[in-house]
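user: can you give me the structure for this one chain? tokens are fine.
assistant: on it. calling the predictor now.
[tool input]
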Amino acid sequence: MVDWITEIFCPLLGVVLANLTFASPTKEVRLVQKRRDLGNLNPIPFGVTFASCIGWTAYGCIKRDVYVFLSAMPGLVLSLYFCTTSMSLLMLRNQGTDLKVYFQMEMLVLGGALSWCIIALIVALILSPTGIEHEYAYTLVGSINGILTFLYYASPATSALL
């Protein structure tokens, strides 16, 4: 018998809470987009969110866990929108500090995507054919995601550095 509280309700609640968290900057991003000025909005967390959500989306796929997938995939799409909006506004201002932040954002987005492609290649081509347990692949991807999640929660502190 399915324990609907632990197997359905709580995971669905996690999906809703994760998506509310990822969507929380939407109003502010739309406002700065409308003003065509980033103002004091720190875009670095958007890049970290993007890299983290790629990993969690992949993890949900390889574990075949629809709740993890549904918790991360909308954040992936939203964070990409937040990143591209922020980066275009940084280029509009075109000041020295803004260019530095722009290149940091570029590295987070491109570096995050490339890193996950390399990790996927390692998991698919190196670990799987050698017969290494899938648990090792899950642990590798999960551990990297854990580090990225820590960085996600620490990234608002980068406001002090800008």
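assistant: here you go. The longest helix spans residues 96-127. The chain has six helices and no strands.
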